[in-house]
Design a protein that fits this description.
- Helices cover 21% and strands 30% of the residues.
- The chain folds into two domains: 72 residues, 434 Repressor (Amino-terminal Domain) (Orthogonal Bundle), CATH 1.10.260.40; 122 residues, Umud Fragment, subunit A.
- A nine-stranded mixed beta sheet has the order 4-1-5-6-11-7-8-9-10.
- The protein is of the alpha+beta class.
- The protein starts with a helix and ends with a strand.
- It is built from five helices and eleven strands; from the N terminus they run αααααβββββββββββ.
- Helix 2 packs across helix 3.
Length: 207
């Protein structure tokens, strides 16, 4: 019940997991675990959550059926000049199109055409030290990349990967920043299995 109540309150407020994590001085992963029921915060954090959302600890823990404020009365949080952008957990390719899982709320960005952008949660350490596991990458949806761009590329039936895109002769090289990882070289017929989800224009470090 706590996980459901927390997610309802956060979405009614229009606050992303990242923004809530910053407010509580915890990681986005911690908030994600609370909302999926994999863990629960300590009593002090529950109290802070109740105060932040203007409700009671009994309600947020599921002990009360009615919240102190009506959810419709909670004013959405909106940073000046910024627009909410969906946070995507996974990018995949199927039937010649790209599929985006958008189950992670929103984060704000100052962009002219919000519908052309999404945030991707970075997985793994292949782009360290510049980009960490759990960071958010702001991606502009586009089907092509310039040589040297940082992009989100889907190869075959796998998930999208964030890598430096290099086009050399008749090959595509997906270059990681972490020297412990080898670049992936795609050639020949395999090039037809490469899908470009977009170009990374900004990254945000996790809290």
């Amino acid at each position: 019940m706590f996980s459901t109540r927390l997610k309802e309150l956060r979405k009614a407020r229009g606050v992303s997991q990242v923004a809530l994590a910053k407010e509580l001085e915890v990681t986005q992963q911690a908030v994600g675990k609370w909302e999926t029921g994999r863990s629960t915060p300590d009593p002090q954090t529950v109290t802070r959550l109740a105060e932040y959302f203007g409700t009671t600890t009994d309600y947020i823990l599921g002990h009360e059926a009615i919240a102190a404020p009506a959810l419709s009365n909670i004013e959405p949080y909106m940073p000046a000049g910024e627009t909410p952008i969906p946070i995507v957990g996974t990018v995949k390719a199927g039937f010649g199109a790209l599929a985006f899982e958008e189950d992670y709320g929103t984060e704000y960005a100052r962009v002219k055409d919000p519908d052309s952008y999404f945030y991707l949660i970075v997985k793994g350490d292949s782009m360290m030290p510049r980009i960490q596991d759990g960071d958010l990458a702001l991606v502009h949806r586009q089907p092509t990349l310039e040589n040297g761009d940082l992009g989100v590329i889907v190869y075959g039936e796998g998930e999208g990967t964030l890598k430096k895109y290099i086009r050399r002769n008749n090959a595509i090289i997906l270059q990681p920043f972490n020297p412990a990882y080898q670049p992936q070289i795609i050639m020949g017929e395999d090039l037809s299995n490469v899908y470009i989800a977009g170009k990374v224009v900004e990254t945000k470090t996790k809290w």
